[in-house]
Structures
1.
Amino acid sequence: MDFHRLLQHKQQRWQRSSYLLIGLFLSVCVLYLLVGELWLSPFSAWSSLEQQLVWELRLPRLLAAAVIGASLAVAGATLQVLLGNVLAEPGVVGVSGGASVAMVILLLFFPSLNSPVAFMAAAVLGALLFTLLLVVMARKLRLTTARLLLVGVALGILSGAVVTWAFYFSDDLGLRQLMYWLMGSVAGVSWYQHLLSLVAVPVVIWLVLQGGVLDKLMLGEGHAKQLGVDIHRVRWRLILAIALLVGASVALGGVIGFVGLVVPHLLRLTLGSENRLLLPLSALCGALLLVSADLIARLALGSGELPLGVVTTTLGAPIFIWMLVRNHDSC
């Protein structure tokens, strides 16, 4: 089989995967809107109460899960290229922890400022600081996979310590809010909170369009410069985009882990590492994964529901352990 046929076969495989994921995503979305404590029929007219249930509760929650899933998956794929490490992920390397610490500070010390915009600003600032710290340490100290993960664990411990202090000093209302953010959930998301989605969606689209630039970065800084890439400017833009996506995701649904790790890695494993094709599929697959996980969270318990973060951690942790074992030689 010559090169042209190999390239054509690869393109067809990406296209088939795209069509399959789009079909699965649309099917899961329809199922998501129909099932729950009150099951709805797609073949009969809905009452005003059922219409209100879908429009005010299920649809905003569905969109939140899709936006968060796409944001975290694309942010994870970009962070892996930026750090040159396939195990990099916003939750694993502490970026989500930075966003949560900033939000905890806002909840405790500036309760009068609580709003989606304030949450977004605080979460983005925290995520940006932690992302900058990671990038600087990874570049200056030439961290291996093991050391980078240890730094991420250390940052996670640091953010966990701050949150523990917040638990100790918070009142009952603050404690409930903190538990909500830490466990991760899109229950109760309103249309007003989707102001955050208006920020996240354009950033996701912009990052998806940067696939060609990321492919050049994967060749190394020297080759990327020869191909006309302004390394310094591109890196800072990518850092800001990752911080915006992680901040918006944490502000909208709390700390939700492993989406940015599992989705890009499995896609690279099965379809290849071409970022211009990988990033749009990562967004689609991330949205599919989180909508499916939230559907499981809603239906798993008859009288209540599981936190979304618990479901994603249960699904992602075994895959993360497998990835660590698989990559032990590079550590």
Note: The chain has one domain: 60-330.
2.
Amino acid sequence: MKVLVDTSVWSLALRRPKNHALSADEVLVVNALADLVRDGRAVLMGAIRQELLSGIKLAEQFDQLRTSLAAFDDLPLPIAVYESAARAFNLCRANGVQGSNTDFLICAAALHHAVPIFSTDGDFEQYQRWLPIRRYLPPVQT
């Protein structure tokens, strides 16, 4: 099963400062991502790729990250996915749940491709109340 990995997870693994010590929960997330990558199950989409590459100040770092991300496929997004994202945005907003256009595009892409979303962003828990998305939860390591 493929897993759509959100920006929050990639950033934790790839963009954190070198001197940032990981908490136990963050170690679980990074290890789970490593397992997904090793098994060829981690996938991206264009909006996540863009978020990851945005804000990188040094061209060399940008190029290194771009090269690293090139190994991962982007989920194809037909027009219906964008329309579904707008519907999801409207449904959640009507029920008092706010979110970004990118988050709802992630939800719609995950539903279209029947893949779970791996994110540390708590907003996806709120979306799950109104949308039939599945979240990927890393296995607890003993």
Note: The helical segments are 7-14, 24-38, 46-53, 59-69, 79-94, 101-113, 123-128.
3.
Amino acid sequence: MAVLLVSASMNAVLVYRGLESKNMVADACVSEYAHLKRDLPQPFAIEGHENTTPDEEWRLPDPDTGTVALTDKYAVSKGLRKAQRWPWDFNKGIYFIQGYHNLHCLYMVRNSILEYRNNTPQTEHLLHIDHCLTSLRDDILCNADDTPRFTGGHFKQAGSGTNQYRMCRDWSKLDMWANARSGCYKTPVDPFDGVSTLERYKFCPGGGKPWIGAEIFKGVDPPDY
């Protein structure tokens, strides 16, 4: 019993030291825009051939949160290209945060797979699906994650990475950052519903109404960008 307690204690120390070491590295890896640190320990997904992620978990986070309106002054300070004008303030451009674009693509590819499995017509065109797969591949290559995942015995031990922790950024903090700069956009259920594109930018978190008094309703056209 004493041996087991000592072994458990040593494992706890090793885990702590490992996470502490990763925290030191994480401090130097603050994200460029939302200033997020890798300070959230999370395990790799548990392998389970009989389990699938529930549908409700695939509805969040919402990719639309990633549509943000950034001031031109901020964009210039960060070396970003000037973007199309946000309809409610011509001093702001519309940007789509990369992480949310990845989710948008992942959800789309998953939906296409489910439609194939259920023998239902494909919602998205192959070109869009291929764009998303290419985008996800490019992002994986860009990040070049070098975390070594341990391996277990074939069908005798836990699968690769099971219960192994890594340091992640807190997505809820990214949500907060994006919502504070929200573009108020909501993707329509039916993109061909005939509703004005402007109406899609009237879903602000917190109930704000930035379109009231906007120049676009005074006959002023958005400037070229």
Note: The beta strands are 40-43, 67-71, 85-86, 89-96, 165-168.
